[in-house]
User: What shape does this take?
Amino acid sequence: SLAFDIYEEKRSLLAELKPLVEAGLLCVDVEDRPTLENLRRRIGSQRRGFHLFHYLGHALPDLLILEDEQARREDQSATRLTEILQLCPDLRLAVFAGCETARAEGDPIAIDAEESKGHSLLSLSDRCVQDCCPAVVGMQAVLPFRMERLFTRFFYQGIVSGYSVAGAMRLARGATRGDRHVGGDLLGWSVAVVFVGGSE
Assistant: This one.
């Protein structure tokens, strides 16, 4: 279901990050009209792009749901997105807080790997770490937004405190699992995963 308030989620995310911004540890640039062209323009406005890309919104395996020029839904493939992110030579981390961004679009058992050259076995996160970013965080399944907020808060606190990406992931997963409202016996803490490329 696509029924949630993206603007409320954005406000919540920015509120979580506000102490880090006020401390001068993080600078946030938000694209409210996420068309492919607007993303290209925003990245182009920075001399070497961005160090971090965070996507908050709807997704399907191998697709991010963006907008067209008339603010209608426009699905964008991993290939199109990675082409845009390659404009950021200093990109170090991409976070895809959209459902199933770390899940391949097809059933691996039903895919002929020879015929597809293995391409259908790759998720958006896989493709991004291969093509444009040394570390990528993606979601293996549907992530409830309350859990996403908690995960994001602790993940970015870890990053700006000097944790490695893997260390920040452990911190965020532990905080999510330990929360009495969203953790416990639920497996939501394991939805977020990190992909790390061959470079440091």
